[in-house]
Amino acid sequence: MSTQRARASRVTDDEINDLILKLQALLPHSNQRRTSTGASAWRILKETCSYIKRLHREVGDLSERLSQLLDSLDNINGVEVEQLRSLLQR
């Protein structure tokens, strides 16, 4: 890799700070103040990881609840439930 190309592919501190602020804006109840220190950027990254893990658990829980609901409905209206299942699997 050439030196010029290596410089062009580096991410600047400003770009990193901008990405951190974008992540912060996606977090629920996030403080919208500007981050200027590594510690607060680290905190935002940690909160983001925790939030993603929590969302993943919620999706799993909701999926399980939906599956149970569909199983209970299966006995009532099997055809409609199968159509709904096929739509959800797309």
Automatic annotation (TrEMBL):
Residues 1-55 form the BHLH domain. It comes from the Eukaryota. It is found in: Nucleus. Transmembrane segments: none annotated. The keyword Transmembrane helix does not apply. The keyword Transcription applies. GO terms for cellular component: nucleus. GO terms for molecular function: protein dimerization activity. Residues 10-90 form the RUN domain. Its main location: nucleus. Keywords: Growth regulation, Nucleus, Transcription, Transcription regulation. Pfam families: bHLH_ILI. GO terms for biological process: regulation of DNA-templated transcription; regulation of growth. This is Transcription factor PRE5. It comes from Vitis vinifera (Grape).
